[in-house]
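Repro case for the chain-ordering regression, as requested:
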Amino acid sequence: MAQKYTYAFGDENTEGKADMNNLLGGKGANLAEMASLGILVPPGFTVSTEACVYFFNHKYTFPPKLWDEILSRLKDLERSLKRKFGCTENPLLVSVRSGARVSMPGMMDTVLNLGLNDITVRGLAKSTKNEWFALDSYRRFISMFGNVVLGIPGERFEAILSKKKSKRQIEFDTELTIQELKALIKQFKSLVTRLTHEEFPEDPLQQLRMAVEAVFNSWNTERARTYRRLNGIPHEWGTAVTIQSMVFGNMGDTSATGVAFTRNPATGEKKFYGEYMINAQGEDVVAGIRTPHSIEKLEQDMPEVYQDLVKVYQKLENHYKDMQDLEFTIENQKLFLLQTRSGKRTTASAIKVAIDMVNEGLLSKREALMRVPANQMDQIFHPTIDPKAKLKLIGKGLGASPGAAAGKIVFSPERAQELAEKKEKVILVRMETSPEDIHGMSVSQGILTAKGGMTSHAAVVARAMGKPCVSGVNTLDVNAKRKKCTLGNLQLKELDSITLDGTTGRVIKGSVPLIQSRLTNNFTKMMAWAGEVRSLQIRANADTPHDALMARDFGAQGIGLCRTEHMFFDEERIFLVRKMIVAEDEKTRDEALKKLLPIQRGDFTEIFKVMEGFPVTVRLLDPPLHEFLPNTSAEIKSLAKEMKVSPGTLGKKIEKMKEVNPMLGHRGCRLGITFPNIYSMQVRAIIEAACRLVKKGINVFPEIMVPLVGHVSEFKIVRELILEAAEEVIGKTGVDLKYKIGTMIELPRAAMTADEIAVEADFFSFGTNDLTQTAFGLSRDDSGSFLNEYLEKGLLAHDPFVSVDQDGVGQLISIAVEKGRKVKPNIHLGICGEHGGDPASINFFNKIGLDYVSCSPYRVPTAILAAAQAVIQEDS
Amino acid sequence: MAQKYTYAFGDENTEGKADMNNLLGGKGANLAEMASLGILVPPGFTVSTEACVYFFNHKYTFPPKLWDEILSRLKDLERSLKRKFGCTENPLLVSVRSGARVSMPGMMDTVLNLGLNDITVRGLAKSTKNEWFALDSYRRFISMFGNVVLGIPGERFEAILSKKKSKRQIEFDTELTIQELKALIKQFKSLVTRLTHEEFPEDPLQQLRMAVEAVFNSWNTERARTYRRLNGIPHEWGTAVTIQSMVFGNMGDTSATGVAFTRNPATGEKKFYGEYMINAQGEDVVAGIRTPHSIEKLEQDMPEVYQDLVKVYQKLENHYKDMQDLEFTIENQKLFLLQTRSGKRTTASAIKVAIDMVNEGLLSKREALMRVPANQMDQIFHPTIDPKAKLKLIGKGLGASPGAAAGKIVFSPERAQELAEKKEKVILVRMETSPEDIHGMSVSQGILTAKGGMTSHAAVVARAMGKPCVSGVNTLDVNAKRKKCTLGNLQLKELDSITLDGTTGRVIKGSVPLIQSRLTNNFTKMMAWAGEVRSLQIRANADTPHDALMARDFGAQGIGLCRTEHMFFDEERIFLVRKMIVAEDEKTRDEALKKLLPIQRGDFTEIFKVMEGFPVTVRLLDPPLHEFLPNTSAEIKSLAKEMKVSPGTLGKKIEKMKEVNPMLGHRGCRLGITFPNIYSMQVRAIIEAACRLVKKGINVFPEIMVPLVGHVSEFKIVRELILEAAEEVIGKTGVDLKYKIGTMIELPRAAMTADEIAVEADFFSFGTNDLTQTAFGLSRDDSGSFLNEYLEKGLLAHDPFVSVDQDGVGQLISIAVEKGRKVKPNIHLGICGEHGGDPASINFFNKIGLDYVSCSPYRVPTAILAAAQAVIQEDS
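-- result from build under test --
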């Protein structure tokens, strides 16, 4: 049999069903499903996504037989409806609608009322005995076709319509007279001719062909591509096209069009929820040209239709076992369903709906767990932009840390602090942030940067702080000195207000209203269910007692990564740290280290206390030492004075320590090998803190982690050093302390030689950030200039710093897991990169059998849910 | 049987042989071998390297039974020689000598005349009837033991001796009277007591035990560790210790000591070659206290002994089938051999000896090929320091580019050029070099840098230019502005003379005489033999017609890496390149590219012509674009003027393009993807050049190589771009051109997904430099601060930028080879990193079945020979 590209639906002859959405798109598949359920839908047929894929792969041409197939389907439709396409007496009109595998609301195009021209419009008037309706449909068709198919900005048609209305001093389109509609149609058509240099196409078949092509092409608009990239939808899927006979909500006061949710999408409340508009077509509701009525009013307006609608929605919800988002049209008191799909909802709503449906017996617990998007779990902690607010988008970047924030912009951390002390809400705007900006970040509502990806400094710190952040806004240029910035063509100065949406990456003009979320009992219940199912343990990355406490509250079962370097940046300590680094002799260095020891011990004591009963993995110092050194001449001067050297000498020393590629430089365990006293001090601080707590009867399980090991010999020498320092402390205190010594696996060479390293190590923690950087040869700090283009062009399906690259980086991890377990079957394996909070990555880590993932505290609920979902998916 | 740690040698009871050098060290094994051959050697025994390894692994203690074993061996020796250790009448004296698996001349310690004390010295005088000799031996023993075992600087003893001689106004030690010797012994002993606060040990057994320990410990002196590191000898081997009965060359005019080579080590001439000294012990010859006689004179002095020596040397050469380096002692006209080993020789000598021995029927061609150290083949092209010259070493770095150079130092490329125009020989001294220094490097005799390793810019460029370079001299600090530098404590200013030895990394004060080498027929013959054996093809890395020609002359079978970026730095072009980079619009960029096209075409035309009949692999632009941009404000100003923008705007643009980790940034094929026009221009230049030559009947085989591919999608998109540009040119010219499109495999991710990439690629060229950097997470530019320490401490056995890391990087390459061949069995595989010229790496590449290696032109003979040796080793 030759390949078939079209699938019919309608009461007689329905060929599709709901699970054929890959082929028919969500819309086409669900129309077929509804038809099979006996729900009234206007009959039609769907051109499959395969035709669209063919179209793009063959220089924008249809598959050979497609047009014939469409014509033949059209004939079937004419027969069944007893109307004829292009007929002058009783014409058949169709809508041409897009439909992707997964819903991309508002992203692609639709044309309604197709088939009208100067002749058929008269036939329509005649057959419906409603000339006003026919003309109204025609003017709608011309503007919609003109916009979608011919590329004329919708505003041009709007302007003509507005002018006409203001001249007549009327408010609504429905008040236009027949004469005015006729004039409008003429004006619309001449606008088309003026702008396209061609007559408006009168041939209905030509209209149809052009519309199908336009819908195909709408798959590749800028906004559609961006939407897919942000939502991880592959560009190669393509869209289906549904060609459906028209029903009309604009046939007068017995007709209407509407949308509804079977439950409240914002809260999850079990209550039918929606809006409708009398004498209107679909786009009127969306465009907001009149205020629609709440769905309850329909019960009074058309009680029978309302009862039909209630029956239909209950049937659909029971059938799909999920909250549905419906589109319907009432044509002369007759209800037609035009679409049903799973309703988009807030996370709070998703959780409530899922739990309610378990209680209603519609879902099992496992099914309910699959219904909440793990990736959006942290939405529940963050404010969101009020969905009712009108937004003026002025920039777009990466949604680097979720949540929304509004405030006045500032361009320096100092200014941020100054204003924050005066209780101003500020947004810190920088080209990129550095460790010295942290105090400014911590007092800001949100952070906006021009450079950097999902794992840039700004993004990582913001997520750790739970602050919204939009990073990598290419159109942003900051002039911090002059306290201004440009966003594309827009100039902004200090104290101008903006709003950030760190979930989607939007930058919005002015301060828009935000909604605060709250943890609920439902959330707690959902987490408990997930806990019963998952096999991965979930830990958190936390460097402070505050973060550790938050992580524990969210359900973390330990700290998987406690970075000691952030502790070094504290204002009181940085001076000692710098002294230690630039010391010319061991004595000066050891003096500084001696002073740092009790401070570090204090840090660990607090974290261990908070995490009582759980393991805490402390990573020894990792970043290149020059990161701690001063940059400004004032700071250099002050340090030089203290060190009793000339600022010139010190400056030269600092200069000499700078590196060409610091990411690949003198850092990680390389520091511990060349400056063993630094690591010894840290180990003593950890073990002393632990021993003192154990003495007090507090259970602590320290795990000491060595960063950036590339060769087993590095791990061996550092392990010896750790053992020596630790055993000395333990010997002195006489405490029976259990502790582990393990390593990061974050270099390809470490992964390839994991069998050698496993002999020595108690645990591996995969540092997927650095492993991604080294496996790809890609600096996350520098990828901004091309990574977006890679994602746009589909060279990479995902940002590998967000979702682990399973083919490459994942293969390295798998090899290391296999090699490690081969020599030490009980070696404890986890990951502590940014990927620890990404559901797709968690799925992968579950599959390859890691013991735990560790992520930022705010991502712990995401990780818990994703870990459960991974098990459910694996089992199914 | 319990483990045995000692092995006897001597006429009666010899337990070792030559191939036991792993256990007995070269010295011990060859003494045993000579004894078995019936050559007279003073009997003794060797403590095995296993004892030394035990000693280091057990906190400097002997294996439990070792001392008893030594005592028992000593008894055997006493029996056989009829003398007694510590005996007051006829005492046995021994030497305690070090001996590693492979010769480390002068690196470790030896003690002679051991067993003497205030009492035995009288016995020795009595039994030999030679009091002067006994006392001379005693004073030698005290100073040698004092130095080697007790750690007293040899100069302290020397000073006392010199004072005594100058007081007496005598020149030679032999002129000292008995009384004077006695006084000297007293003074030596009181020096020891003064400095060690203990009496000189009189107990011969205590002396022996201390001497054995001292020889063990001499394995780990700074100089020994450095020597091993530079020569790739593992630290864990340890040394053997040979305890041998003394024979005496200082018993008067019938006694002597000497060293000899069986052929000339500098030229290979087949002529016995050596020196001896009457009435002397071994160290006198080395120390040069008297001028020794040439070996020919021995024929007159002691004709019978000379005949014995001739017989012995011929026997040894025939037995070992190699040129030998002998040590002998004549005691009262009786010849004893103390050592034989394979003689160190220049490369020219090694080649001549090997070929002569084939002609003499001693060696097969394959054996002869194994006799020339491949690593030193390029010595033959470079001047070397006259071995007779006296050197004052003032610094030590990496031998980054072989050969010696002498000249006046300058600190800027401009100054280098200025002086070179006046025919001055200059050495360029820099903290590190950058592409802008190239013109200065090209006119200098040699390059000296403070920073950077074997693959730093200075090292790579210098090797490509065939210029000596010493890099990474940690003690060097350059103040270019003030035109001076310090080397440790030494101050040098512009125009001071120094000499560099780029083979060993030595920096020498003043201008010392150099010897120029020349290619010989022997060299050509050796290369031809290697060609018959090897299976790897050898290509060269060459960016200019000059380099290509040289490579071809040396036997290269193609260009494996033609870097196009070096072409961009040419003075005439850099301006166009910069214009192209900072262009704000496509038009300006395309204009600049259009002007670059004919220039690049010219480059390729010349290289293709030179390489007629051979493949030429051209790598498309690789480095980050900001590398090409100006740094000085003058240059920025001039470019800004040309571009008609303000210098501020341009400066900002340049600033914005700088990267945190340029190695992992916007470079390689990432450039080709974001700026496709650059690659298109390059492809057009390559293919136009090739087509024009083919039309003229010249055979060219261009291979276009895509750098830094990490994901198959990158290669696909660039391949499409290449095909499009290439086919357009080919279509226009109508030439039937064969060309290939392949990729570098230089990122771990590319190696892991090589099967996906192989589907698309005609060839892989492993970029082992970048693959090493990314697999290790190690920037070659920044590794200077710790890599040396790693090598010193034995954390790494080799510098992975010199010899490929087989365990890690090699594993990645092997995986890629396997995956690539699995999907495309005939895919062409090679490497083009620095490792292509390293014999150990070539051995590995041969083993894993690559098709070719590509290295710098000067390394081509090394690679040819190493490839042959790899095959021979694999076969054996």
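Ordering looks correct now. Chain B has a mean pLDDT of 91.
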